[in-house]
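Sequence in, structure out. Go.
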Amino acid sequence: MNGSADVSAAERRNWAEGTLSFEASRARIAESSQWLAGGVSSNFRLGIQPTPLVFERADGAYLFDADGNRLIDYYLGMGPMILGHTPRDVINAATAQMQKGLLYGGQSGPETEAARLFCEMVPCAERMRFCSSGSEAVQCALRLARTATGRRVMIKFAGHYHGWFDNILWSTTPPPGATGPVAGSKGQAETTDEIEVLPWNDLAVLTERLARGDVAGIIMESIMCNQGAIFPAPGYLQGVRDACTATGTILIFDEVITGFRVGPGGSQKLNGVTPDLATFAKAIANGFPVAAIGGRADLMELMTKGVVHGGTYNGQAVAMAATVAVLERLRDGSAHAAMAVRGERLMAGIQTAFDRAGIPAVVAGPPQIFHVALGLTEKPRDWSDLLGMDRARYIRFTTALLRHGVRALERGAWFLSTEHDDDVIDSTIAAVQRAVQEI
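Output:
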């Protein structure tokens, strides 16, 4: 249940008038800052306007904050909540497993079943392993690529994000004209001998670089979703696949966002190009801390031959029971098809609102995870095109939108769930129209 039928007349009036206040959240963040650095446990929750929010509960497509506001949610936990906030089948599966134990320090039946479903759904996954975060899964993929090839250099692409660890947090938001890797954090280890950054969607540049024969692997978001929601250019992924095969380079797709969100087999199935390895998280378990790496059997079996992959909480039984429930719901593709219909209607509604107001904007990407960029007039092809976005104006838009009862990420991404029904979409479009007029 998404709760749309329970929205009161008073709540709808507050949404329409844009009178929501967030002072209780502001006070709670100030209080928690005595113990939590910045009042939060992730830098990606810092600096939110008008304040980081504190929540009391959630239901379906809605969040309920410390001020008593009901908010239509397009953060969806930064992406995981593909079945909404309270999917009964997932909650029941996790609850049943909790009665049997939490953490065994060994294997469980739900882990095996989750692995079977994963391998059946993901094209590249002849074998797989569970992890606890996407950042950890990426580290495993990098180790496997270097071991398999005996090479050291990894290539990533400007604007792509693969976790917050020192060896890969490079050029996630590089400035114009950057020609070398740009660190993403203060205090980050500065060794860049084993990482190179190239422009994405430029096959000629990549092919020329791979021809030198010294690259262990390349890692990319096969649909660029952390910054923008940009599709690969026609033929690009297949060209990359062919170049990697020809040069013995390991191709890694980072599907932490796209995996199980854009379709049952992730973007690799949607795009029809199979990598050697792929990493997953977020939508795989609808809010439980589960990630995964899957790929060719010969590569994955290297973890039994000296490539260390560990984690106390990997395959935790309660999380595995939830994973089984999520994958069973998603595997036939009907959930994604329904989200696509509503997502496309929402995308069109947002684009129309900006067009009518005469505000340059581009709404693009898969309908289950799309992106809104103010200041652009054409769909971007890579990070350099996104540099033209009017980020300040977009934040004014999301701040206004919040006062009208809709919570959307300030970086421009919009995540949908199965619980965003027609009434929720209608309410969102109405809020967008009002917020656009205010900026």
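Check: The two ends are 34 Å apart (CA to CA). The mean pLDDT is 95.
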